[in-house]
Amino acid sequence: MSLRSTTPRESPPRRRLLIAACAVFALALGLRFAFWSQVRGGALDEWHRYDQSDMATYLAQADQFASGDWLASEPVHPYHGWQTVAPPEKWLAWYGPHVFHQAPGYAYLLAFARSLSDEPLELAKAVQLVLGACTAVFALLLGAELFGLAAGVIAGVWVAGYGPLYYLEAQLLREGPALCALFALAWLLACELRIERGGLGRALACGLLGVAIGLFHVLHEMGTVVLVVAALVLGLHHARARLRAGRAAAVQALAALAVGYVVGFAPLLARNLAVGAPPFSVSCRTLINFAEANEANAAEGGATFIAPGPAVVKILDEADGSFLRMLGGVWATYDGDVAKLVGNWWLRWSAVWKRFEEPDNTSFYFYREYSALLASSPTFAWLFPLGVAGLLVAAWAAWRALRSGEHAALANPRGVLAACALLLAVAGALSFVHTVARFRLYVTPALFVGAGFALVSTWHAMRERRFGAVGALVGLAVLAALYQGSITRETERDRFRPVDWYVAASVSQTLGQHERALAFADDSAKRYTGDVNLYLVLGPTFESAKRWSEARACYERALAALPQSPDARRGLARVQAALGGAK
Questions:
Q1: Three-class SS string for 9-20?
Q2: How many angstroms separate the CA atoms of 159 and 139, rounded?
Q3: What tens digit of pLDDT does each residue of 423-460 get?
Q4: Is residue 44 within 8 Å of 367, Cβ to Cβ?
Q5: Which of 137, 211, 368, 563 is most buried (CB neighbours < 10 A)?
């Protein structure tokens, strides 16, 4: 299909770009604080109190830092309910000495917030929401850099209203800041591939990009993937002349990128050397996550998380911290069955693109039940088909433009291919672990701008009455949607978790919001007919607080759902006796 007139070759005027960026920032900020106002002060705003969550781990690690132990030679490692396959000391042996549980950057930021405010968690969430608005602006800038201002505005507006992102930005999770950084890095990389620089300018630009990637790696393990993609595309870009000068330019760019990366990573590098951890270690979870997802009998090929079994224990014991030995242990579980190995990988790869938002720590669908704003937000089910259609057309146009030497169709063809490479690299990394919704956010930068390009291209083609081009784009989007539907497992169509109501009720009780706790219990009972467990959990809690009327309500509702429940009968008898004694 022809792409003439779909995107301008020139960069958009700075004044128009600034106005668009301010408008997108204001929209994104308004939506984020509007959502926060809907949940603020209640259980949905205090999910970090759930001790089985990563949020609680981040806070525990931040507390260790804030207490003065900034090097944390013995970092925090949680012991959650799913880990009972082995005792805590066994897990500590698998983790290895002195290595952080997850990349420590976010916990350091939380610890720093404690020194700035008497309400550090409120401050952290407010900053994250502002960064979320910046993410929308970086999406605009990336789209404008690759496809023009119109596509950039669509991408920015989509990020501004993307519910699976902004509901996480209001939680104590690193996904919001990390995605903001990833969008910024993708934009900087695309700009570098368009701008021609001399030797010193090239070295400085690549060095600064390396510094940014090194800092990002302190925040998130995905920094390794970003560094590899940046090295690959910059090396190819500067070596394209096929001359000695081109090779020298590539070597200079890669050397500057590497030096810059080490500078950015230097704080964590220095800490690791000081405490005796492996110099470039970021997280001890990488080997364990790989073993859990890739052993032959992992649930649904490793696409679904379950507690590790004896095979994983054996792999980790025999690996003794060695990645190569761990790979050998994983391969041994397949007993030479290559077809099963490939089939399991395909299930994990497909899980990256599934239609629904798989919960982890929090659940998008649970939050959507209690936020009208979130209920009306677009999801990945809409983003994926349009994003894939736009990227396929743009990648083909970029490849043809680079081969012919004519760049009229696209503003930055090398940047387009770099964005596609980053998408595939991140998705590839995710295909070796169990991918949940918040992990999948890191594949979305290219999809957002691709969706913007698809919509703008369709609009221009319709105005120019090029209905073949319109049909091609719509056809690609339909095929992507059909693929997405076919890989979405039936077991995921019930997208709610009973544990969400349990946590919400428990946290509400802790906050003193007793009526709200009962309301969550009622909602759970309506959804899970006959499930009285939450009432039986709340009843004794109300009893211990001498809140007899709420305790009686719990037991009466439990008996209404399950008249033969002995626990409910005994509980109601205790409450009635207490009320009689009080009289």
A1: CCCCCHHHHHHH
A2: 7
A3: 999 999 999 999 889 999 999 999 999 999 999 999 99
A4: yes
A5: 137
Q: Which pair of structure tokens corresponds to residue 433?
A: 């672990």
DSSP SS3 for 339: helix
Could you give the CA distance from residue 362 to residue 47 in angstroms, rounded to a whole number? 8
The overall pTM is greater than 0.70: yes
Contact 3, 410 (CB under 8 A): yes
The full length of the chain comes to: 583
- In sequence order, what are the residues at sequence separation of 6 or more whose Cβ sits closer than 8 angstroms to the Cβ of residue 434? 289, 292, 293, 302, 303, 304, 305, 348, 351
- Which helix (H) or strand (E) segment is 508 a member of? helix 498-510
The Cα–Cα gap between 73 and 308 comes to 27
Domain range annotation of the chain: 14-277+373-479, 498-582
Residue 299: CB atoms within 10 A of its CB come to: 15
What's the angle, vertex CA 11, arms to CA 5 and CA 16, rounded to 5?
100
Question: Please, what is the end-to-end C-alpha distance for the chain in angstroms?
Answer: 84
Q: Please report which residue ranges of 173-243 form alpha helices under DSSP H.
A: 175-194, 199-219, 223-238
Query: Which residues fall within 8 angstroms of residue 294, CB to CB, at 6 or more apart?
Result: 302, 330, 344, 432
Give the whole-angstrom CA distance, residue 265 versus residue 216. Answer: 8
- Cβ distance 177 to 110 under 8 Å? no
What letter does residue 360 receive in the DSSP assignment?
Answer: B
pLDDT in tens, 61-79: 999 999 999 999 999 999 9
Q: What dihedral angle (degrees, nearest 10) is formed by the CA atoms of 249, 253, 255, 259?
A: 150
The low-confidence residues of the chain, meaning pLDDT below 70, are 1-12, 241-246, 405-409, 490-494, 529-530, 581-583
SS3 95: helix
Torsion sign over Cα 422, 427, 430, 436: positive
CATH fold of 498-582 reads 1.25.40
> In whole angstroms, what is the distance from residue 297 CA to residue 343 CA?
12
CA distances (Å), origin 14, targets 149, 276, 278: 10, 50, 46
All residues at 6 or more sequence positions from 557 whose CB lies less than 8 Å from its CB, including other chains: 521, 522, 525, 532, 535
